[in-house]
Amino acid sequence: MTALARMQTRPSDLREPAWLSDYREAQGAHFKEHGLPQPRLENWKYTALRMLEQHEFRSPDPVSVLQPEDLPDLAVPGARWRVVFVNGRFSSALSLLDDLPDGVRVDSLAELDEADLESLRQDIVQDFARPDEALAALCAADAVDGLVLRAEAGARAEQPIHVLHLSLGQDGPVLHNQRDIVHLAAGARVTIIEHHRSLGGSGNFSNRLATIRLAENSHLGQLRLQQMGDPDYLVTRQDCEQAAGSHLDYIGFDLGGRLVRHDLNCRLAEPEAKATLCGVYALDGKRHVDNHTRVDHVAPQTASEELFKGVLDGRARAVFNGKVVVHEGADGTDAAQTNKNLLLSPHAEVDTKPELVIYADDVKCAHGATVGQLDELQLFYLRTRGLPEPEARALLTFGFCREVVDRVDNFDLESYLTGQLVDHLPAGQAMRK
Amino acid sequence: MLKIENLHVEVGGKKILKGLDLEVAAGEVAAIMGPNGSGKSTLANVIAGREGYEVVEGSVHYDGENLLELDPEERACKGVFLAFQYPVEIPGVNNTYFLRSALNAQRKARGEEELDSMAFLKTVRKKLEVLHIRDDLLHRAVNEGFSGGEKKRNEIFQMAVLEPRLAILDETDSGLDIDALKIVADGVNQLRDAKRAFVVVTHYQRLLDHIVPDSVHVLSDGRIVKSGDRALAEKLEAEGYAWLEDEAAA
Amino acid sequence: MPSSNPQVESLVERKYPHGWATEIESDTVPPGLNEDVIRLISAKKNEPDWLLEWRLDAYANWCKMTAPDWAKLNLEPIDYQAISYYSAPRKKPRYESWDEVDPKLIETYDKLGVPLHERAKLAGVAVDAVFDSVSVTTTFKEELAKAGVIFCSFSEAVQDHPELVREYLGSVVPNMDNYFAALNSAVFSDGSFVYIPRGTRCPMELSTYFRINALNTGQFERTLIIAEEGSYVSYLEGCTAPMRDENQLHAAVVELVALDDAQIKYSTVQNWYPGDEQGRGGIYNFVTKRGDCRGRNSKISWTQVETGSAITWKYPSCVLRGDGSSGEFYSVALTHNYQQADTGTKMVHLGRNTRSHIISKGISAGHGQNTYRGLVQVHKNADDARNFTQCDSLLIGKECGAHTFPYIEVKNPGAKVEHEASTSKISEDQLFYCLQRGIGEEDAVSMIIDGFCKEVFRELPMEFAVEAKKLLEVSLEGAVG
Question: Longest Cα pair distance anywhere in chain C, in angstroms?
């Protein structure tokens, strides 16, 4: 058994309802039984977690030592509210939660009272018994805190909520688990910016699990900006259950980290539910980013659209695995899935697997994947107009990612994210003027 | 201004240009005509510096400088502009941004101050108006989803903004209706002055009704086989290219 | 979708046309698999020691392996001890002359539309007929020999050209490649052998016709095609089996080797017995087919029309080793009733400037499950590799399934890989348009399906293209309505 499989990050003196401690025990047992997912599991074929075994992770300190003045400028333009988690624990000192819109509540999972916890019981007690979801089991067993975001029927947050996840070193790599719950009631509309940053530390491992429930006609905008430090690990999984007419609009920007894995699962349980999953990954060095999506079209007249684009330089490796499952009876399904990659270095690698599993006949499903490089003719065209080659390359590379950036419909955010992305592209500095 | 001597060019091991000579002076509009496959587009691409066009012999000088030693962008910064026969679509790259980057790169190379977005937009709007082009063109990606005519007009619009000293128009008239043809011609005529030169590559005489050339050169099998004035273009229009071959054979 | 139409339904209840069995005296070894059975097969075929060793080695490997379960297949575990691994008509495995061939066999093949008799031979097509475990006869042998082409049964090749067999056997599909390839390597009985000498364009189409007849036997044939420098061959294979309630196992291995500038075109029309409307019986078709583009600028092209078998598990692949080599895969797979097909290809780009092209058309009807599973792999040194893949699925009815699992792995920045896939049903607009013009529903559907498969059909040799089209129509009968 590896060091990781033996460790338990949750304090032993948690005062919790019995059902919750029992649940943690059961999930902890799943993780101990399976250990880290191995590459022989189909879902981990291209992402080896061996390097996690080299570390002796520590449990996070229970109390954050950070004060607002310690924070570098991490503000995101246009975001009015901020929720901060440091190593998986809510920090009220760093958060800005005044004047939340009517009907929108933000809580720390650790601070919920027993009755409130009971009301979330169904969301919490999901069982993660399969070997390929062992890290979710670990998170379920050990996460003591996380974001609880609830919006009542018709509630609207006109501006996005910035959810900042800081990963902080403490004399050695830290493993922190965090469990988030998002509930939008009928017609509610909220946008969150999920921002992952490291502040020092070497090789922190952040393991996160989110349960999202979208009621009729609700809309969740989820922007994820991942800028973890070079040595850091991040594994996230989210399960989104969607009612009629609801819409999850996810756009991910993966720009950092050593090894990053996202599992994005959507279950379109009722008609007219829609999931939009988009992502950009711009990777250099030895970064490894793996996006696994799974959309279950359970009800008729549901739609999903996926667009993931990536630029790989250095020794970076990207994995995309998109699975669209159209269940029996899910007639009128419309599913489109695209993954495109630019390979810029002889040592970079792309593994992509767009999958369709279809059990209904009245469907419109299409997927596509490409791997290629910058177009020489386009490059020449730009140069004949006077652009120096590095700049022309940067411009084309950005142009390649643009399709995803354009999906951000808030102007301030779009400019901000464009800036973050451009800084991260090879020769991006050439464009930054 | 442009001096080409004994130019031999191969593409993929195939000889296309076989000892081409051409001189174009400042202020001149030179028309290059010739049948399909005679090497017209090759000539245009070689002047702009496209890869894959191997110069095996001969020279191309521009203002006394060896053009063949320069990268495509260096040529552009020195005022060489190519209006492509098939303008390239670049999805995701905004036309305005693209053109401002190009203009500023050229201005920088010339030691001029770069234009900010406001100043740039002002210049650009004026050009659009003059060329009767709708300004929604600015918000679209470079050539993406443009019709054939729109692409050609966009080339001329870029030329108007970049104000090159030597502009090469590679079959810019092909596939254009008469209105679009006039816009192209207007774009050229407005730029015409004593310091600029144009090389107009075309298959038909039609464009030359609107852009009156100072000289006409006939390119055939990789060489200029006949040079003359405007009357030559009219003769070609009336009689085709066959008589030239007969003349050459005689 | 078209509404229920009783006239159409009654019209289309035609059955599998090749479902009869031939009553023939056969030499069949008792069911069961162990070293002794392998020794027996090898002895019956009078094989050299090295080949027996190779078989025993494969058997040892197989014993250590477990049956794969990753394919999206739903099947009962196979009892390998209940299968007979060798069955031959008459005591004598090979006929010295035409007159010795059992008239019942000739009749069998006549009935299948594959005349073996000298007078009635298919024009321009040389046929090797394999009945259960052995090759019955090969036509046009002398004519081919004049061109230097060797076309014979695998058993004959072992006797007559042992050096070629020894050099190439297992060089593309090793005897421990996968579970079913290992099993085949241990017990294979016969198959076809083709050798095209340097610079030779094979003067006619070569073809093997496989027929499973005996009850409770498996068929394990082995095909080996070697195309020397600058040669060309087009090879066709066809298969049928009688209707039986039990599932029968067919685990073949096909190895192709193309040297510098050589070209191999391999076409298959697979029509093993698919089982009945309730999913009873049918052939389990677990086949390993792989081509090695060993030489520069060599080319291997796979075309397949898969309409038969209860379960198909096959991925004709190309190893693009030689610089400038190219691989193609064109496939139509149709599943109806309870058929399951899991098929696709692997294109492994190793050399520079290698090209691959994949067109896969899946048609699912009834309760049929159709899966495309493919791999495109571009290795580090495969500069300027190109791949284009297109996978389309057509669904007919509410209970069937169509699945796509492409794997794309790229380790070279000069590679261009494109994959496209779509899934659709026959659109009401298309159908209505045809109906409005006076075309009947069945005709309209078959027309639309024919159009859907066109890119693949046009890769087939003419005679096969016609047969394939008809086959598709017959196989789909009852699917619409």
Answer: 69
Is the Cβ of A6 closer than 8 Å to some Cβ of chain B? no
Q: Which residue of B has its CA nearest to A386?
A: B73
- Report residue C20's pLDDT band, with 50, 70 and 90 as the boundaries: low
Answer whether A365 sits within 8 Å of C423, measured CB to CB.
yes
Q: What is the DSSP string of C78-96?
A: P-GGGSB--EEEBS-SS-S
Chain A segment 397-416 residues within 8 A of B by beta carbon are 398-403
Say how far residue C200 (Cα) sits from the centre of its chain.
25
- Do the chains contact at B90 and A383, CB–CB below 8 Å? no
Cβ–Cβ gap A385/B98 under 8 Å:
yes
pLDDT band at C5 (very low <50, low <70, confident <90, very high): very low
Instruction: Quote the distance between the C-alpha of residue B140 and its chain's center.
Output: 23
Grouping H, G, I as helix, E, B as strand and the rest as coil, residue C314 is: strand
Distance from CA of A125 to the nearest CA of B (A): 44
Of A344, A355, A361, the CB nearest to C405: A355
Contacts of A388 in chain B (CB under 8 A): 73, 105
Q: What is the pLDDT of residues A264-310, one digit of tens each?
A: 999 999 999 999 999 999 999 999 999 999 999 999 999 999 999 99
- Residue indicated by tokens 């013009």: C437
Q: Which two tokens stand for residue B34?
A: 């010739």
What the block records as the tokens of C207 is 């073809």
Q: Do A353 and C405 touch (CB under 8 A)?
A: yes
A115-152 pLDDT, tens digit per residue, is 999 999 999 999 999 999 999 999 999 999 999 999 99
Q: Do B102 and A385 touch (CB under 8 A)?
A: yes
The model's pTM is 0.85
Q: How far apart are CA A197 and CA A256, in angstroms?
A: 9
* Encoded amino acid at C261, one letter: D
ipTM score here?
A: 0.87
Please say whether the beta carbons of C404 and C391 come within 8 A: yes
Residue A172 pLDDT: 84
Interface present between C and B (3 or more CB pairs within 8 Å) = no
More confident residue, B142 or C240: B142
Burial class (CB in 10 A: 0-12, 13-18, 19+), B74: middle
> Which amino acid belongs to residue A401?
C
Q: B75 vs A384: CB contact, 8 Å cut-off?
A: yes
Q: Report the residue from B49, B50, B76 with minimal CB separation from A385.
A: B76
Which residue does chain A place closest to B109, by CA atoms? A386
**Count of CB pairs separated by less than 8 Å, A with B:** 85
Q: Is the pair C, A in contact (3+ CB pairs within 8 Å)? A: yes
Q: How far is C237 from chain A (nearest CA, A)?
A: 31
Q: What is the edge-to-edge ordering of all strands in the sheet holding B2-11?
A: B14-24, B2-11, B53-62, B65-66
Query: Which of A350, A355, A370 faces C404 most closely, judged by CB atoms?
Result: A355
User: Which are the contacts of C124, defined by CB distance < 8 A and separation ≥ 6?
Assistant: C204, C205
CB of A372 less than 8 A from some CB of B: no
Mean pLDDT for A49-68 is 82
The sign of the dihedral angle between the CA atoms of C347, C405, C303, C358 is negative
Q: How many Å apart are CA C18 and CA C271, to the nearest integer? A: 9
- A41's CB contacts (< 8 A; 6+ apart) are A131, A132
pLDDT the model gives residue C387: 96
pLDDT the model gives residue C19: 64
Average pLDDT over residues A316-345: 95
DSSP state, residue C169 = T
d(C-alpha C359, C-alpha C392), whole Å: 8
Q: What residues contact C353, with CB distance under 8 A and at least 6 apart?
A: C323, C324, C383, C384, C385
Under-50 pLDDT residues of chain B: none
- The C-alpha atoms of residue C320 and residue C351 are separated, in whole angstroms, by 6
User: Once rounded to an integer, what is the mean pLDDT over residues A107-113?
Assistant: 94
